[in-house]
Write a structure and sequence with these properties.
Elements (H helix, E strand, L loop, with lengths): L3 E8 L3 H12 L2 E8 L4 E11 L2 E10 L5 H9 L2 E8 L3 H10 L10 E2 L5 E5 L9 E5 L4 H8 L1
Parallel strand pairs: 1-4, 5-8
Antiparallel strand pairs: 1-5, 2-3, 3-4, 6-7, 7-8
Bound molecules: (S)-Methylmalonyl-Coenzyme A.
């Protein structure tokens, strides 16, 4: 079902500060920035490698409000890993198969994610305490880099 780790989402208070830290420390490049109102985040994707069906990234997330998922996470736990996202070939199909196994989906239908992807979240309590995201990357990674750099 999973092709690769698409990204690790890291919650932070100050996106610009953490972009500077991660790009300087790990020599990573920001390939996309986005404000996702639906998810309540301002985010940046730092490219690590290319893999089957898309790339893999570190995703830095700053909340748009204290009531958003990332805002609540920061208040409760502080900065750190917020979720792990896996690349899947077909997000609707993966959602269907996972739901049949008794895992709660946090989304009833795929939503808009980073870089044109389609995404869905699984309840952390049903998968070992890890907020898990499914990602169907819709654009080949080379094109994404051209569009967003
Ligand atoms: C909450 N919990 C977590 C967690 N957030 N566990 C692991 N990782 C997290 N990130 C735990 C709480 O500690 C609590 O456990 C339990 O889950 C239920 O929490 P809750 O009180 O219902 O807390 P809420 O209201 O904050 O909701 C948590 C929930 C929510 C995961 C349902 O954040 C959600 O729907 N997230 C999915 C959307 C999302 O995160 N969007 C932001 C990234 P205890 O033991 O205390 O009961 S958007 C994104 O990343 C997009 C742009 C992309 O990748 O392209």
């Amino acid at each position: 079902m999973f092709m690769r780790i698409d990204h690790i989402g890291i919650a932070c208070h100050d996106l610009e500060e953490k972009i500077e830290l991660f790009s300087r420390t790990f020599e990573l490049t920001v390939v996309a920035r986005e404000v996702n109102e639906e998810q309540g985040v301002k985010e940046a994707m730092l490219h690590i490698a290319d893999g089957e069906g898309g790339g893999s990234y570190i995703q830095l997330l700053e909340p748009l409000s204290e009531e958003s998922p990332v805002g609540k996470f920061l208040a409760r736990r502080g900065e750190g890993v917020h979720h792990v996202a896996f690349g899947v070939p077909d997000v609707a199909d993966a959602m269907h198969k996972i739901k049949e196994k008794g895992v709660r989906l946090l989304d009833e239908r795929p939503r808009h994610g980073s870089m044109g992807s389609e995404i869905a979240f699984l309840h952390p309590k049903d998968v070992g305490g890890m907020l898990t995201e499914l990602v169907q990357a819709v654009t080949p990674v080379q094109n994404v880099k051209k569009v967003h750099m």
